Amino acid sequence: MLDWRLSCLLLHAAVLLLLSKGERMCPASCRCEGKIVYCESGVFQDVPENITTGCQGLSLRYNNLLVLLPYQFAHLNQLIWLYLDHNSISAIDALAFHGVRRLKELILSSNKISHLHNNTFSAIPNLRNLDLSYNQLQSLQPGHFYGLRKLQNLHLRSNGLKQIFVRTFLECRNLEFLDLGYNRLRSLTRTTFLGLFKLKELHLEHNQFSRINFFIFPRLSNLQALYLQWNRIRSINQGVPWTWQKLQKLDLSGNEIQILDPAVFQCMPNLQILNLESNKLSSVPVEAVAAWTSLTAISLAGNAWDCSPSICPLMGWLRTIRDSKDISMICSSPKSVQGERVVDVVRNHSTCVDMSNVFSTTALVIVSSTQIGNITTRPSSADITDLTRTESPAPTSFIPELPFEHMAFHKIIAGSVALFLSVSLILLVIYVSWRRYPNTMRQLQQHSVNHKRRKKARKQEQDLNSQLQEYYLSYHSNSETMDSLVNEPRPCTCTISGSIECEV
């Protein structure tokens, strides 16, 4: 009886020892750290079988996985995160993730996935982060993300996406970050982002949009950052007015925008950061400048700025923001100032003579276009505040005066003083010469008198010579006349021009 009990105890101890060793087993070519397993050697074509069942984190990055089979990870029901990026996965079975309900992070980026089954991720409802970027997906359908109501971050960058069907993200009610950048999207509908009430950051950069109507983003009431840079956007507008109360950052750089619609910025009362670099802007309407009531940082380089008085509202507003001024703005027209910095042209060429008046006009437009009680003002100079208090009529538009009407008073004074000093200097030289060198002055006077006399004599001689006329002789060129002149002494009359006569 005692031997039997001892045998049972030994058998039980052996089983416990084997189980404990099994829990501590680590696959070959892998690295195990507690409940975390790293199998990143690049030799695996399938999921290793002898991974401990208590594994909470599994990394199979940089391997040669081709297909994810049904229930591939079911024996790892404690998994919290799973990294499968940088493989060659081209197909995922609809039941591949069944059995890992506790999974919160799934990375499938940099693979060859071109198709997803509906309800592929429905078996992991606790998923918070899903990365499908750098794959070959061309379209998204509503069933692809069914059941992911706790998903917070979704990465779909660089997939070649061309189409997003209606209500694709309807189940992602807690989504806060969505990256659709570097795809081939050309258009969006009003129902594309339906259900994303908590979305805070949206990336749509490097797509193929030609125009953007901000009314296609309805009910994104919590959106804080919108990235639309490097598309082909020529125009932006706001359809039916509605307010983006929490939008703080807007990036529109690298597009082909020529004109800014003031209505767009009037719907963004709390916008703080605006990037308009590398567009085709030549000026900014005064109404748009007036809507930038809370803007603290702006980028304007790389545009075709017109350095005429139309630039004055923008330059006047730039004086009020606290961050460093955008000195990289370059003039594109007129030709006389091409290539120069806008700041230098405005300062040196008197394009905007009184910048404070320009911005005061802009401030008055703000007062006239919105209710004074609803305006969120920035710290501004005292002269702007005083002008806003005293001026009751508010102009509806800013008409810059022509440059010739802004004749600076100090220039007139400087010219008059210069003329006066020049005349005084000449008179002083004459006076000093007369007082200090009298002989020289007499010689100059005598030389002047002699010069006048010689000039008068030459004039008289020219007059006398002009009165003289040529002498001429009348005769007949026949032989008889010649004989008579030679042989017979007859009187002959010679006539000289004038009234002088003589007999020969």
TrEMBL record:
The keyword Membrane applies. SMART domains: LRR_TYP. This is Leucine-rich repeat transmembrane neuronal protein 4-like. The chain crosses the membrane at residues 412-434. Keywords: Glycoprotein, Leucine-rich repeat, Membrane, Repeat, Signal, Transmembrane, Transmembrane helix. Residues 1-22 form the signal peptide. It comes from Stegastes partitus (bicolor damselfish). SUPFAM superfamilies: L domain-like (SSF52058). Pfam families: LRR_8.
